[in-house]
Amino acid sequence: MWFDMGSRVLEESWVAEGDIMIKSKKLLRLLAVLAALALFASACGSGGDESASASSCGTDEVDGDLALFNWAEYIDEEQLAEFADTFGINATMTTYDSNEAMQSIIAGGNSGYDVIVPSDYMVSILIDGGDVMELNKDAIPNAKNVSDEFSGLYYDPTATYSLPYQWGTTGIGVNTAVVGTDFPRSWAIIFDPSFADEFSGSISLLNDPRETMGAALKYLGFSLNSTSEAELAEATMLISETKDRLAAFNTDSADEFLTDGNTVIGHGFSGDMFTQFLGTDNPEDYVYFVPEEGGTRWIDNMAVPVDAPHPCTAHTFINWMLDGDQGAALSNWNYYSTPNEAAKPGLDQELLDFVNDPSVVAGGPDSLELIEDTGDFEPNYSDAFIEARG
Amino acid sequence: MAESGPTVLDRDDNAQDVRAKHAVDDQFEVRAAKAESRRGLLLALPAWLYLMVLFVAPLLIVTVYSFATRTRSGTDLSGWNLDSYRKLGEPIVRDILFRSLTLAVITTVICLVIAYPFSYYLATRPERIRNVMLVFVMIPFWTNFLVRNFAWRVILGNDGPLTTVTEAVGLGEVELLFTPVAVVLGLVYGFLPFMILPLYAAIERMDGRLLEASRDLGATGFESFRQVLLPLTMPGVIAGSILVFVPSLGAYVTPEILGGAKTTLLGSYIVIQFLTARNWPFGAALSFVLMAIMLVATLIYFRKGGKTL
Amino acid sequence: MSVTQPRGATKRLLQFNSWFVYLFFYAPIVLLVIFSFSDSANVGVWGGFTLDWYSEFAESSQTRNALGNSIKIALVSTVISVVLGTMAALALERFTFRGKRVFDALLYLPIIIPDVTMAIMLLLFFSEAANILGFQKGFATIALSHVAFNISFVSVVVRARLAGMDQRLEEAAVDLYASRWKAFRHVTLPLIMPGIAGGALLALTLSLDDVVITQFVNGPGWTTLPVFVFGLIRKGVTPLINAVSVVMLVISTALVLLSLVTERVRSDS
Predict the structure, then answer these.
(1) Residues in chain B closer than 8 A to A389 (CB atoms)
(2) Residues C9, C82: one domain?
(3) Model-level pTM greater than 0.90?
(4) How far apart are CA C28 and CA C23, in angstroms?
(5) Could B261 and A16 be called an inter-chain contact, meaning their C-beta atoms sit closer than 8 Å?
(6) How many domains, in total, are found in chain C?
């Protein structure tokens, strides 16, 4: 029946003729031009009109549901649900897979998210772009739980806009059953042909310009935040010489390649490696370390977009996550390292063993660097990486 | 439309009456043609309007970006410049473009070679079986695209099913993962249905008696194919080729997962500009050049294959 | 077309090709299904039979939400794009009008534009629109975006069907039926139905698979399955992804087979 009604309507409009058609066509053009102009004008104009303010938020106050924007598998659904139940609200989590994708969405405005989880360098970019709000520390008393080593961070020295969430390192995972245990704890096992050629075709590097160029820079004795074109050129040469020895450039599955035999040496992240090794039947065959020349330390943080719909809920969530018990639950679930001093007593023994093992960072804590955004120099890194890859 | 002008029916009228009558006919013709044209426009209107608002307008915004400047936290729209377009002249861009074009052409040709016989055979099956067969072609593609790529990664990997089978059969070890072959395989896998569907649609609506006639006149199978079947199904060939070539040119997921990201292709290059390098102006400029090339190529392809799709 | 049956060697060759194609298509699917029952966190390593991944999927409200969102969006966007795309195809293949060539070119743009570019431009567009009109990004923005590219794909498939089709049938129908609409509905429409069905299938698939565009025009609570899977992969590929895919596969196959059966029942009666 509805189909017949629909057909009749269509029949009538099909038959409609006359000047209406010509006028419609002109109207159509006009509409399109107006739409384009309006959007063009507003694109040129300033975005972000209404910024929410959190200055009036009290501790444990909620002003609506929580919309969390986070990396995948970074928090247990159940932990999030517990938060929702405790405060009598709904909590949703949407995921992103790169800082830059998240930043594009947040900077566009009206994203609808209350809490985001940017990495170190991305925090500085968000602050620069005016996309995150100043945190009201009165609403986050648990901020005192954060370990002292996380104060004075370059990207947010006074923790005005962000508070640490989880952290880790980037290094190399090795299948000792194939490679043996007697190898130098150095980037040389990837970059030095006298060692690496033996494993040609079974090595992977991260598919990440900053991390991989950074590894090369560290091996060559430079800073991984170098803004010297000469140093970057040397690093580019090194990567392009290494390229033929590689199985792949891969970020997501570097750890899996190790355990399923596609590689025996893999550049990857601490928590990923650790979880993957523990998931095998023979975790003792694998080793993860940060080379003695140094490597990346990275810190993921919680921040609140400047136009967050529910800033008070956001603050309450951040405060809740910084509680000792919640911090321990988080790390015990995702196996990354916690910045939360109060959480440490609650950590699983395996995690503690891994984290506290000094041999993991072969060059000592001072050899680690945080990635910094190099501003206008930044495209040089991706250009260099692309050139190196061929 | 029937031609107007004096006809055999006007024999009995005088000349003036004939002219008057046909003048009315002519007017009628013109109005009928206009009505047709309006109907056509009316049909096109909804899609046209939709695309103007939800495609062209956003596209215009991004066009503006291609003339802007990259900043640390976004894009500075004030002050127009051609820097991004100038950057397109760098040799690396040419290399990437050439590599991507080659890959896309290879993928398209392989898809055509595999899909044509398949679609033909499909079109010769009884109607009931045809629909079922088509559905079975589509079913694998209702799994997630990424998951399918990962499944191939498992199949082609070291100690994976493929090499296990070839070793058992005596063909020896086969290490395809992270090679260009794996990438082509993955791309062909992903886009084959896009070639099959239009080809099938074109072959199926062809009048089979033409082929029979060709056979009766003594042509070999191949001659019938070349001179009857292929020309008549050319619209399908072209539609399928475009639907495969274009996404192949911009593909980046398959080359990363199955190829190990060991070379940079156009798709990855553009994604890197928008995301990793946060260089939107250059990303926009690259996109426009890519689209311009494809639009021109499509138009040329059309002219050669016939006026329409 | 069922007139010209291939014979002999040709027929065997064609059959072989068909079997090869199906084998090729289903190899990864078979693998997918098998390893969804594998008791090992590593896909590709068989660890014994288990249903754990399926129960994890059933318990994970996030995954189920994502699946539900994907299906809703795919259905809505397919219906709209099939209607608009078919109309566009008819306009281009059966009529001439001013600006036809422009319209033709316009329809190609969504096919040739790189995904990420379309994602970014729609992000900018919707963010600004949200600023002005004050709506929340989510279901509507995703569905609208999917229609934006699907119209073109549908029209390409339907046009391939229309082009060169014997128009005398349609012209005869116009003479016989008083109204053009009736002529269309009773003659043209059934003739182009395979093209429309093909276009609809294509649109459904493209919508269900879309990651980049969906990611950028998304809003809280509207994660779709491919975006969710994309995020999971960052953490590590486990057979959970297989289980999710198999469920999705079963649902979509069931839906399509159901529609095939009902169509057969309807045409038989």
Answers:
(1) 261-264
(2) no
(3) no
(4) 9
(5) no
(6) 2
